[in-house]
């Protein structure tokens, strides 16, 4: 590939035109399972942050969990008891499983654990805590005082005229606890309070310090100013004309006197043929689930290899193996170009495990060993792989086992039969001669690698090879008169061991089995006459 600058370094170069001190921010509302589609935002932010650090920039990286947003509706994954909580801030709603402090923590905690696995370590803020600590106090006062100017910006850029009673601040009702059913009736900048009425019938006063939150289109630019954000990725929905970035940019400049962050706009991740991932529609694969089935560096690679403005199609079934293959080929290239090297560098992160065992080979080893880790380690050692980092191998084994359980298509699965499969009754004389001769050669050989097994099978085509001659003798024909089709030989292997006519890559497969087992099984199959 030609010498190309990776998109993260292009972003960093553009950002540096704005100065040498930067704060990269990312934020997600934990209203449901934080899915692999959301991961694009966080990985994009992390990669931009790392690219800035690589250019000796003074950079920080933060993640803001929008825990003070209201619950919009009873999502498909919630029971009807949550109807009473619709409209309340997520941080003030009970946890669905009863094991976390709040609804927001129920979904946030596994996401933060997933970030650790991905080698992503931002400073984490929770919006409810920021509001309760008073971080937004000045921004709230300014927004309330300049309410008409903000309404004018929103109307001009979005084309929508705010209602007469619209306010940039949403109080939380003291009685029902909801944030989306209140209306501001007045405010006192000196006392730092806001008066409201609520559709539940209550009217009262709340503090600007935690008694409510700014509406999203004002909250975002207020956050930029309050935290000092200079770089932020966000989805294309926010980047549409008249969208929240357009209005946020104007509000930041005209109301708060702050330059909007450098925008990194990203496209959606599409789940197979089901479309864009969304927690509310249930079209989702959670990051936690994905990290059960694929190495973290491969998930990073999924995002890093594609420019943010291009959509990504992700399928956790068979296409996932192709993604892993692609990554492993790039990783093992002897002389990768600078662009490829940069992709690998950004895919790695401190603390991420890596082994030299291909994922696809491990799917064969795992199934050949029946999932038994001790047997797997013996096969890995016999195959010549580095067994020094057992922890990383265990992670790969767990990934493969989970993938087989959760997403693998039927044709990718197999099990070694403990008894000779009845299907061997259908083997031809040629196939029996092959199995018998193959077993005899193995009995005289040392340990063979996957490549050795592969080459041995294919040698049966060559009239001068030992295997071909032995097969011809068994069939009582002249070697030069015997035609051999390797496809039939592979079918004989799979039939005698798996009871089916196809299976994993034969060389890898045979090298995963004990040689004595192969010899015994092939001889049994060759001699079986029902």
Shape type: elongated
Return the structural class: alpha/beta
Per DSSP E runs of 2 or more residues, the count of β-strands stands at: 12
Question: Any idea what the CATH superfamily of the domain at 7-158 and 215-269 is called?
Answer: HUPs
- Compute the number of helices: 21
- Rg over CA atoms: 31 Å
Percent range for helical residues? 40-55%
What is the overall pLDDT average?
93
Strand content: 5-15%
CATH topology of the domain at 7-158 and 215-269: Rossmann fold
Highest-level CATH class of the domain at 7-158 and 215-269: Alpha Beta
Spatial strand order of the main sheet: 1-2-3
Which stretches of 5+ consecutive residues score pLDDT under 50? none
User: Between the first and last Cα atoms, what is the distance in angstroms?
Assistant: 58 Å
* CATH level-two architecture of the domain at 7-158 and 215-269: 3-Layer(aba) Sandwich
**Major sheet:** 3 strands, parallel
EC number: 6.1.1.6
GO molecular function: ATP binding; lysine-tRNA ligase activity; tRNA binding
Enzyme class: ligase
Family: Belongs to the class-I aminoacyl-tRNA synthetase family.
Strand-helix topology:
Elements (H helix, E strand, L loop, with lengths): L6 H10 L4 E8 L7 H19 L3 E8 L37 H15 L5 E4 H7 L3 H9 L1 H12 L10 E3 L10 E7 L4 E6 L4 E5 L4 E3 L1 H12 L3 E5 L8 H11 L7 E5 L2 E3 L15 H7 L2 H9 L7 E3 L3 H15 L5 H10 L11 H10 L4 H10 L7 H17 L22 H15 L6 H9 L7 H10 L10 H13 L7 H6 L3 H13 L3
Parallel strand pairs: 1-2, 2-3, 9-10, 11-12
Antiparallel strand pairs: 4-8, 5-6, 6-7
Helix pairs in contact: 1-2, 6-8, 7-8, 10-12, 13-15, 16-18, 16-19, 16-21
């Amino acid at each position: 590939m030609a010498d190309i600058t990776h998109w993260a370094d292009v972003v960093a170069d553009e950002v540096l035109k704005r100065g040498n001190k930067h704060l990269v921010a990312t934020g997600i509302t934990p209203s449901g399972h934080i899915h692999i589609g959301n991961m694009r935002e966080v990985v994009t932010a992390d990669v931009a942050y790392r690219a800035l650090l690589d250019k000796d920039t003074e950079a920080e990286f933060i993640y803001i969990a929008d825990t003070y947003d209201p619950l919009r509706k009873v999502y498909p994954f919630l029971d009807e008891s949550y109807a009473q909580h619709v409209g309340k801030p997520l941080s003030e709603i009970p946890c669905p499983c009863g094991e976390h402090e709040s609804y927001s923590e129920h979904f946030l905690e596994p996401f933060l654990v997933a970030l650790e696995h991905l080698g992503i370590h931002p400073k984490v803020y929770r919006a409810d805590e920021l509001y309760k600590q008073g971080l937004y106090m000045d921004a709230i006062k300014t927004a309330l005082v300049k309410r008409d100017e903000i309404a004018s910006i929103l109307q001009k850029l979005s084309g929508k005229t705010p209602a007469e009673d619209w306010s940039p601040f949403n109080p939380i009702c003291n009685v029902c606890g909801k944030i989306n059913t209140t209306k501001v009736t007045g405010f006192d900048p000196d006392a730092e309070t806001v008066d409201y009425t609520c559709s539940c019938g209550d009217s009262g006063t709340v503090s600007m310090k935690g008694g409510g939150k700014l509406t999203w289109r004002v909250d975002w630019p207020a956050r930029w100013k309050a935290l000092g954000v200079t770089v932020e990725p966000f989805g294309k929905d926010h980047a549409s004309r008249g969208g929240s970035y357009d209005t946020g940019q104007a509000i930041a400049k005209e109301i708060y006197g702050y330059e909007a962050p450098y925008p990194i706009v990203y496209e959606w991740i599409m789940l197979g043929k089901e479309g864009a991932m969304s927690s509310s529609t249930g079209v989702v694969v959670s990051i936690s689930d994905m990290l059960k089935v694929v190495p973290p560096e491969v998930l990073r690679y999924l995002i890093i290899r594609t420019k943010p403005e291009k959509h990504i199609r992700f399928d956790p079934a068979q296409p996932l193996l192709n993604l892993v293959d692609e990554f492993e080929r790039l990783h093992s290239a002897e002389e990768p170009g600078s662009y490829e090297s940069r992709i690998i560098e950004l895919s790695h992160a401190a603390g991420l495990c890596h082994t030299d065992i291909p994922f696809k080979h491990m799917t064969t080893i795992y199934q050949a060993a029946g999932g038994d880790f001790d047997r797997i380690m013996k096969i890995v050692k016999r195959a010549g792989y580095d067994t020094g980092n057992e922890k990383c191998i265990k992670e790969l084994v767990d990934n493969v086992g989970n993938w087989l359980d959760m997403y693998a298509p039927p044709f990718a699965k197999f099990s070694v039969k403990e008894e000779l499969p009845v299907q061997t009754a259908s083997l031809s004389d040629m196939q029996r001669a092959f199995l018998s001769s193959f077993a005899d050669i193995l009995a005289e050989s040392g340990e063979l690698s996957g490549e050795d097994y592969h080459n041995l099978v294919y040698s049966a085509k060559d009239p001068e090879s030992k295997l071909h001659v032995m097969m011809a003798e068994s069939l009582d024909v002249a070697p030069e008169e015997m035609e051999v089709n390797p496809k039939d030989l592979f079918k004989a292997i799979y039939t005698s061991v798996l009871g089916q006519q196809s299976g994993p890559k034969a060389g890898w497969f045979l090298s995963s089995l004990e040689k004595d087992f192969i010899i015994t099984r092939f001889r049994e199959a060759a001699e079986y006459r029902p």
